[in-house]
């Protein structure tokens, strides 16, 4: 060691690695790809949550939709003064608004299906662990059978 390296203060970590959560967070923050992916995910969720304030119109509200704005190219301005950044469809609905409002539905379906899968899997796992023996073996064989199908076939 040289004198220069021994005089440098040790680099402080953002999260202490004493707990499992602290170790996870410290490794997560060190990965630039993980941090960028998390920021992108939070941006998408924020865009979905704040869609009524971000978008120029509600694509499901027929009172706001004008047939005169049908099939406009991206960046065109409507007769009401709105700028349609992605254009409009044949009914005059803003495509950017439709994407963000559709994102709200997609995220809610994804989260709901994940919660349902978590509840079912946790319940069956607890039953298998509590009962043990033949019940556990039977449940494990059903899981093995389920995992034997290719994911593309199930999809």
* Dominant shape: flat
Strand content: under 5%
SSE string:
HHHHEEHHH
Structural classification: mainly alpha
Enumerate the spans where pLDDT stays under 50 for 5 or more consecutive residues. Answer: none
Helix content bin: 55-70%
Radius of gyration, taken over Cα atoms and rounded to an integer in Å: 26 Å
Number of strands: 2
Structure write-up:
The chain has 155 residues and is mostly helical. Helix content is 61%, strand content 3%. Helix 3 crosses helix 5 (95-131) and helix 5 packs antiparallel against helix 6. The chain is flat, with a radius of gyration of 26 Å.
What is shown here, in short?
This protein has 155 residues and is an all-alpha fold. It has helices at residues 3-7, 20-30, 32-49, 51-54, 95-131, 133-147, 151-154, and strands at 76-77, 83-84.
């Amino acid at each position: 060691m040289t004198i220069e390296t021994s005089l440098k203060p040790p680099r402080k970590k953002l999260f202490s690695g004493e707990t499992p959560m602290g170790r996870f967070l410290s490794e997560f923050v060190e990965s630039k790809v993980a941090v960028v992916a998390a920021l992108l995910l939070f941006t998408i969720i924020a865009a979905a949550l704040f869609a009524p304030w971000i978008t120029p119109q509600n694509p499901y509200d027929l009172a706001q939709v004008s047939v005169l704005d049908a099939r406009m190219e991206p960046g065109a301005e409507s007769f009401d003064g709105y700028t349609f950044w992605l254009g409009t469809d044949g009914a005059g609905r803003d495509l950017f608004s439709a994407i963000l409002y559709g994102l709200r539905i997609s995220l809610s379906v994804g989260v709901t299906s994940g919660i349902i899968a978590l509840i079912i899997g946790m319940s069956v796992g607890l039953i298998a662990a509590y009962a043990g023996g033949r019940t556990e073996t039977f449940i494990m064989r059903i899981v093995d059978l389920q995992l034997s199908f290719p994911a593309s076939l199930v999809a």
